[in-house]
Amino acid sequence: MNQFFKPVNRIVLLGASNLTMSLRLIIQLLQRHCGSPSEVLVAAGHGRSYGQNSQVLVRELPGIVRSGLWRQFYSEESQRLLQPNYAFLTDIGNDILYGFSSAQILHWVAWCIHRLHGRSARIVMTNLPMASIASLSERRFKLLRNLFYPSCRLSRNEVVDRAWAVHQGLNELTKRYPLTVHEPDPQWMSMDSIHVSFWKRYAYYEQLFTCFANTDSFSRNHVVPVSKDDDLKPLLLPWRRRPQFAVRKVLGKIKHVSQPSGYFDDQTSVSLY
Description:
It is a single chain. Helices cover 36% and strands 18% of the residues. It is of the alpha/beta class. Helix 2 (23-34) packs parallel to helix 10 (201-208). The radius of gyration is 18 Å and the shape is globular.
């Protein structure tokens, strides 16, 4: 890390496609409540698994719990900075379609939360959008399963049952740890029922991240809506340099990139694991 870089906080982001598609937006909307510049640690990527290696086309990534993010999060250098920690977890349902049990998925997520809690992180997590998932027709389910998870052979009913079990388990984690669990309303979701609508992303994440600024909403585990008078959308900073994965396998060849690899002009650094 640059010796002249003095972040005011550290932000940890864990997820898959929703996080990947809105990474710049998520970082800067979160900073509106937490401040900047930040040291941002990210484990994301389309189709990312929380626990096992996952492959999309020719690219393979390690599971989030096995990534180098945790080594940096608990490094002596990071501990010396003594800055507040904020964490956002999302995209937890991928592993259901990879065939893992609800118990295994909850074990991985609980492991992440325990590690974050060990550094007193304020944690916000999205639950599975069950209203959207349960409303999927058999025809649409098979279309999406074959498109995004071609190796999956679980039936719609099996997927929905496991999703409900994960959903309940994530809610129960609030009894063990101080965190906010938010279930996306169907109005925010796209037609595939698992991704936030592209055109509603700004409003959705802006509303969600008020949890980090509002102590009452954080303790009560629900989202306080943003004022309707707040219609102005500040321009987002462009990437000065886009982040690249620290470790990835492409066509069987392992590639390494030193971190942090991404930057904004306000000196925020982004490490992508």
